[in-house]
Amino acid sequence: MPVAPVDDRVGGLRLLLPRRLRGRGPHPRGRADGAPVRARPDRRTAAGEQPRGRDDCRRHLGTRRGRDHLSHTDAMIIRSAEPAELPRLQELERAAGELFRPLGMDAIADDEPPTLAELERHRAAGHAWVAVDDSGKVLAYLVGETVDGAFHIEQVTVHPDTARRGVGRALIAHAADHAHRKGLAGLTLTTFTEVPWNAPYYERLGFRRLTGAALTPGLRRIRAAEAELGLDRWPRVCMRRDG
Questions:
Q1: pLDDT tens digits in sequence order for the chain, 243 residues long
Q2: Is the separation of the CB atoms in 189 and 175 below 8 Å?
Q3: 181 — phi, psi (to 5°)?
Q4: N or C: which end of the chain has fewer CB within 10 A?
Q5: Euclidean distance between CA atoms 41 and 187, whole angstroms
């Protein structure tokens, strides 16, 4: 399914690039044999983060007010995804995709979610994280991989019912922390420029648009694959946030 950013203020959103526009071809960054081209992130933590282990932290975001933060009674845990949770990630994608339909982007809304095999590949590599509430319900997820020395966010999805709570922001912060621990230079992603919860949202999180010589070989390949899939029907851009 697509990857288009998740602006927590609007509802569940997907972040970057669609996986496969209904049979239009393989995953944009996959090879013919299904093997991926890889990537990695930068760093920065959300206020009040309480690390609970290498890939498990609890974030209490009630210390600051505002639509992008959880209330003082809310808490969530960000941890590595588990195999049994992968079908839930597909459910999140389908729900989040509907947000593109009112924008006339039906092809994005109808795009199939990542396959279980694709999600498992990210999970097995240690590059799939979920945000869960205290009951263990998965609210959102993020997957990515290393591309040219940075962590490339391939997908971030927040369920529409979990809007305005800072969940997407917290997942991105977690990916940034992971990138920092791995010695990676920062975070990258590709996204739509004219969708309010895409490029404008990422700019508020410190990402900048990349053009010309700033595009690495890996990002150029990703953009070329996206163009072949027809994603350039809507303006897109590569973005980066340094560590």
A1: 444 334 333 333 333 434 444 322 222 222 222 233 233 222 222 222 323 333 444 443 332 333 233 322 357 899 999 999 999 999 999 999 999 999 999 999 999 999 999 999 999 999 999 999 999 999 999 999 999 999 999 999 999 998 778 999 999 999 999 999 999 999 999 999 999 989 999 999 999 999 999 999 999 999 999 999 999 999 999 999 998
A2: no
A3: -60, -30
A4: C
A5: 4
Please say whether the beta carbons of 205 and 172 come within 8 A: yes
Q: Angle formed by the axes of helices 116-124 and 86-97, to 10°?
A: 120
Q: Quote the CA–CA distance of 139 and 157 in Å, as a whole number.
A: 9
For residues 178 and 54, what is the distance between their CA atoms, to the nearest angstrom?
9
pTM over the 0.70 mark:
yes
The answer to whether the CB of 130 falls within 8 A of the CB of 140 is yes
Helices (H), 151-195: 167-181
Phi, psi of 153 (to 5 degrees): -75, 115
Instruction: Give me the DSSP letters along 89-153.
Output: HHHHHHHHHGGGGGGT-HHHHTPPPPPHHHHHHHHHTT-EEEEE-TT--EEEEEEEEEETTEEEE
Q: What is the C-alpha separation between 37 and 58, in angstroms, rounded?
A: 31
Contact 109, 93 (CB under 8 A): no
Residue from 242, 239, 243 nearest 3 by CA = 239
